[in-house]
Specification:
There is one protein chain. The chain has 237 residues and is of the alpha/beta class. It has a domain at 36-162 and 200-236: Rossmann fold (3-Layer(aba) Sandwich). It is built from eight helices and seven strands. A seven-stranded mixed sheet has the order 3-2-1-4-5-7-6, sandwiched between helices. Residues 9-15 have low confidence and may be disordered.
Length: 237
């Protein structure tokens, strides 16, 4: 379903993942996030490399289930549970619909990801999720994930990031707007969504992500993919 939520929206409030967003989310994210499909494909690659037998895979902030599907479709290991968590009732409904018939090893949970105890995990994914968590709570969440990961397990984090270089930031932000225009969003839609989401989506810079991984105890971390102001990080225990 095509995203036209902000086409005629005048009564702007903070962005929420309600039924109207859930119904168009897949279209919205593909047209708004440069490199989105590559992010999902890399989750599949890392599942093959870092997954382990008799372990759990977590998709935290599962939205409509694209990451969970990639985890299942690319899993060569045995006896795994794929746990998809989202705090939006409407998103979990859409996720359940998308996962129906895919496999029998999915658990879909409607809850705040901060309340989930990560256990016996070899893969944990935060795909465009951490940016919606209050900044003061982000380190605790990463610590929780680290504690629940097996040795050699991997955390994959994809996020919108910001740049401290003012000129670089302005150029990349302009290119991101051009990307949205090229995907059919009008000036009104672009401005309206930006106003709606600016108090909800709080970005970090690349260095902040690496500092969090280091503080949590990850042995290795790197930025494996970047397209404009979106980046994907891999941290291995």
């Amino acid at each position: 379903m095509r995203d036209d939520i902000f086409t005629h929206k005048n009564d702007l409030v903070d962005f929420i993942f309600d039924a109207s967003v859930a119904s168009v989310f897949d279209d919205m994210v593909k047209r708004s996030v440069p490199g989105y499909q590559s992010m999902i494909e890399m989750v599949g690659l890392f599942t093959q490399k870092y997954g382990q037998n008799d372990s759990q895979y977590y998709d935290l902030g599962a939205s409509t289930g694209a990451v969970a599907i990639a985890l299942g479709a690319n899993n060569p290991y045995k006896n795994n549970r794929i746990i998809a968590v989202d705090n939006s009732v409407e998103m979990t409904k859409k996720c359940a619909k998308n996962l129906a018939g895919k496999a029998g090893n999915f658990d879909i949970i409607c809850a705040n990801i901060e309340d989930i105890k990560i256990q016996n995990a070899s893969i944990v994914v935060l795909n465009l999720t951490l940016q919606f968590i209050k900044p003061a709570q982000r380190q605790m969440l990463i610590n929780n994930i680290y504690q629940g990961l097996r040795q050699g397990g991997a955390l994959i984090v994809s996020e919108k990031i910001h740049f401290n270089d003012v000129q670089k930031s302005a150029k990349i932000n302009k290119l991101h707007i051009d990307f949205k225009r090229a995907n059919g969003y009008s000036e009104l839609e672009i401005a309206s969504k930006r106003q709606s989401i600016e108090n909800v989506l709080i970005t970090d810079d690349e260095q902040t992500h690496f500092a969090r991984f280091n503080t949590a105890g990850f042995a290795h971390s790197l930025c494996h993919f970047q397209c404009l102001n979106f980046a994907s990080f891999l941290a291995v225990k």
